[in-house]
């Protein structure tokens, strides 16, 4: 069997797990692939390198693939996702100072997203009355699940991101430092960076993404759209390796080894113990609170990996809320076409587990 070399970009997040496991546990090799994984420093770098084919495929924000396909954000690069890589797994974290202020202003249980949204609105109003600068919240990319989750949370308090609260873009590995330095007041990002901020003693987790939206669209395995048509063997082989990695990762006895792979210096470069707790859904919250147990905090199961064109409607609604675009019917069709359930079904039908 001829070995096919594929170069795949990824960002250091727990949700890159299936790409990492495809290589490190030998699933890619068994499919006849020599998989080269390249850790990137920002989502824009990753998108651009996929666009110019420095990468064959990439671990990518689903909304970023849709935005690139639509030509929003300065880059027009039609992309396609025959597989998703996860659902859920993000959280919103505030600095300890802002969290304590939020807790004081909360009229009810802070775990309720409406209660916390109104408390945030009260904080914004107080700062405005005192002549203080607006709060700054960060997301990891302009076209991301995280921007749209922040928008949904703020809307509960009658706030708008970018108007009542500043939005700053901070790549995932830089969020903890940005929070510690006071550059930002909080952020929404995928695991493990919320837990890392809590572990570093600089942040407190307010909400997990599942508090706002369960089974939330997140990362996909993105290809250039024309490559999905021109390179069916490569797409199928990598898809099969990912599906086998999913089946392996979902077995409880393999959680520790998954965390071990992800903790490597050229992967997430964080303690395996921290990553393992996240995979078990045991989240440290900070501010003196006990750990929180969330069943299926991040999903890697086969059902989660099937792309759903319906997710494009949520992404486009988030874009509209963020003032990024008001989609036409033609744009909606193009966005839905990024997510390819038929390609997933074809790959799955050929996999021998």
Automatic annotation (TrEMBL):
Pfam families from the UniProt entry: NMT1_2
- Please name the SUPFAM superfamilies in this protein's record: Periplasmic binding protein-like II (SSF53850)
Q: What is its main location?
A: membrane
Q: Which GO terms describe its cellular component?
A: endomembrane system
Give the Gene Ontology MF terms in alphabetical order: ATP binding
Which UniProt keyword terms apply here?
ATP-binding, Cell inner membrane, Cell membrane, Membrane, Nucleotide-binding, Transport
Report the PANTHER family cross-referenced here. ALIPHATIC SULFONATES-BINDING PROTEIN-RELATED, BLL4572 PROTEIN
Tell me the protein's name: NitT/TauT family transport system ATP-binding protein
Source organism (scientific name):
Bosea lupini
Read off the lineage from the record: Bacteria, Pseudomonadati, Pseudomonadota, Alphaproteobacteria, Hyphomicrobiales
């Amino acid at each position: 069997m001829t070995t096919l070399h594929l170069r795949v970009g990824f960002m250091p997040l727990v949700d890159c797990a299936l790409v990492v496991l495809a290589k490190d546990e030998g699933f890619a090799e068994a499919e006849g692939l020599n998989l080269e994984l390249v850790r990137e420093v920002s989502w824009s770098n990753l998108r651009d390198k996929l666009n110019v084919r420095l990468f064959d495929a990439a671990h990518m924000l689903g909304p970023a693939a849709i935005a690139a396909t639509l030509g929003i954000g300065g880059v027009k690069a039609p992309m396609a996702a025959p597989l998703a890589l996860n659902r859920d797994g993000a959280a919103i974290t505030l600095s300890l100072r802002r969290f304590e202020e939020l807790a004081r202003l909360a009229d009810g249980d802070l775990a309720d997203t409406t209660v916390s949204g109104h408390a945030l609105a009260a904080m914004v109003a107080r700062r405005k009355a005192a002549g203080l600068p607006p709060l700054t919240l960060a997301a990891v990319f302009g076209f991301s699940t995280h921007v749209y989750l922040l928008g949904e949370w703020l809307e509960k308090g009658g706030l708008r991101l970018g108007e009542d609260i500043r939005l700053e873009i901070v790549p995932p590995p830089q969020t903890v430092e940005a929070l510690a330095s006071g550059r930002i007041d909080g952020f929404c990002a995928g695991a493990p960076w919320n837990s890392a901020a809590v572990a570093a003693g600089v942040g407190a987790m307010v909400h997990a993404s599942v508090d706002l939206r369960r089974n939330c669209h997140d990362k996909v395995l993105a290809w250039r759209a024309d490559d999905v048509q021109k390179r069916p063997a490569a797409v199928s082989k990598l898809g099969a390796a990912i599906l086998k990695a999913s089946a392996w990762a979902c077995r409880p006895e393999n959680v520790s080894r998954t965390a071990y792979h992800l903790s490597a210096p050229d992967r997430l470069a964080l303690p395996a113990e921290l990553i393992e707790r996240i995979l078990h859904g045991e989240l440290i919250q900070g501010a003196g609170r006990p750990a929180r147990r969330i069943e299926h905090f991040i999903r890697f199961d086969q059902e989660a990996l099937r792309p759903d064109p319906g997710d494009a409607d949520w992404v486009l609604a988030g874009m509209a809320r963020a003032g990024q675009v008001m989609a036409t019917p033609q744009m909606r069709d193009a966005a839905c076409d990024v997510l390819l359930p038929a390609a997933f079904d074809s790959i799955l039908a050929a996999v021998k587990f």
